[in-house]
Amino acid sequence: MRVFSADNVLIAEFGEERRNVVHFSEIPDVMKKAVLAIEDDRFYEHGGVDYIGIARAAINNVTTSNKQGASTITQQVARNFFLSTEQTIKRKIYEILLAWKIEQNLTKDQILEVYMNQIYLGQRAYGFSSAAQIYFGKSLKDITVAEAAMLAGLPKAPSAYNPVANPKRATVRQQYILQRMKQLGYITEAQYEVAKVEKLHIKTNSAEFAIHAEYVAEMARQLVYEQFKEDTYTHGFNVYTTITKEEQETAYAALRKGILDYERRHGYRGPEAIVELPRNKEVADEIIEKELADHPDSDDILAAMVTEASPTSVKATLSNGEEIQITGAGLSFAASGLKANAPPNKRIQRGAVIRVILEGKNWSIIQMPEVQSAFVAADTHDGAIRALVGGFDYNLNKFNHVTQAWRQPGSSFKPFIYSSSLERGLSPQTIINDSPISFDAGQTGGQAWEPKNYDGKYEGPMSMRKGLTKSKNMVSIRILQKVGAKYGQEYTSRFGFLPEKNPPYLTLALGAGAVTPLQMAGAYAVFANGGYKVNPYLISKITDSEGKVIAQAKPDTAADEANRVIDERNAFLMDSMLRDVVRFGTATKALSLKRPDIAGKTGTTNDSIDAWFAGYQAKIVGVAWMGYDQPRNLGNRETGGGLALPIWISYMQRALRDIPIMERPIPNGIIQAEGDYFYVENPPGSVPRALNADEVIIE
Questions:
Q1: Cβ neighbours, 10 Å, residue 357
Q2: Could you give the residue numbers annotated as active site?
Q3: Which residue numbers delimit the Penicillin-binding protein OB-like domain (predicted)?
Q4: What does the mean pLDDT of the chain come to?
């Protein structure tokens, strides 16, 4: 199965594996010899366990720090087919017993054939025939001596010796294998001289797809599997998603930058690991290679091992063998780890595994984030998802925070409570008292509650519009108290929120329930499109291997009155108030976009555990979230406006580039008076239906 973006860029391929089985007689002799030279040159002499090899490795491991293994090809077959990779005595004994059993039941040629067809060689390639096609774009029978040696270096560590990701290290290992082949008489001196200088043409596009959309690809795979089950992987489906390459890449970069900016504000935690690194360069290189294999790179954030460290300079080696130096501003973030009095486990020293990033022409020390984030953007007319990033790095954390993270929305939920009040007769100019309030356990569904405003300040009577602009908790609570928590719960379910996740208590006014970023995108789209509920969707169509359409999306749209969930006038008034949040309130950073047609709301939960921004222009809605997987304080000064909003802005700078500024027409049934908008049936001076005749202020 292949997954594409809306503009036909390949996002991912799914199948059981990339494998092309070949018979022993079809495997070229040079490929067999290259494998035997590096993996098991006594393969045809031992009975499954090489006692001479074990003794040789044992002596080496006692006398040097360059550790060697002694597993035969037969043992590797036993391990790869039947056992785990855990390093235990019990597993090793099973491996030896199975190797003997295999040797009793298969010929040597059969064992080697099995090995060469099933060994994993990176890039989802199993077997040397598949690897030849993926790395060199040619049939196994056509490979040269030099190419065979390169492929033979992969089984030991496919990531470390991958010629696409680590060309320098892969070449060093290839040269060593060529020397071994010459020493063992597998190739002649003339063949060796030609092979060692041969320029290899690696298929560099085999390493990655052209777009960072790993979470999108996995969502698409799950959706297709729900419908087609195992046929998903065998029928050659082409799946076309709604995302576009440029917007997806913009969202990906914006989210990662937002997270790294947060990390830089919160101090250096120290190296990821510290190992003993001997002065012997050859031995040290082997240790560096093995250790960094356990610390995979994350796009442009690379793992490196320190070889020299001082307060003014750090030298380190990358996983591809490149040696780098970090000085000046590149050390500032990790300065605490370079001090002489730094705790041993936080000190940057020889043997420390650190993270580096190339900024311009200079390297800087950074660290892998612990915090997570999510971003999703969708078309407000039909819900087509335009960009989706479910976390910092899919390869390190496959949990999709856009669809799977149920988090408290905090103040970003308030607009839905305000919207409910408009249906109960309140208006943007209804006066609400921003003063302290307290409740007993029966009103909150738990314990007695004495809520506070985020900034601890109370300003007394103010308009509902101002209360939302300033995100006043007391105003939201009094609004929900007036309309009724049960009504508030039922009303907000119109936007797609689950009642069971948002109990009917007054804490709902402050977003104490649970939502996902994807739900928030669909909910805010209602305000953007004039009152229609559209459901975010990802797959536009599926075709078979011959291009015949076998499934086509038929989304709900904002043009269908059957999808209306709130009055057009309600959506208009909410949009007006949410624009004020950008103009005068907690989202003024968005003014940098220089557009009067954007609106949205920040959200920061109690103890700054979740940070949100949900906002939109008439055509696009976007939601950004940041928080820890195991909820904890993001920092006392961290807010949705400081963490999530910058991600949203970065995306919208690109997404809105070609969209003209749009003014929203005033719908029928709305009047303008006293500098604000009102329902025609609730003009200025009228008593809101939710209030008793003698009430002036909602106390």
A1: 16
A2: 39, 411
A3: 268-371
A4: 91
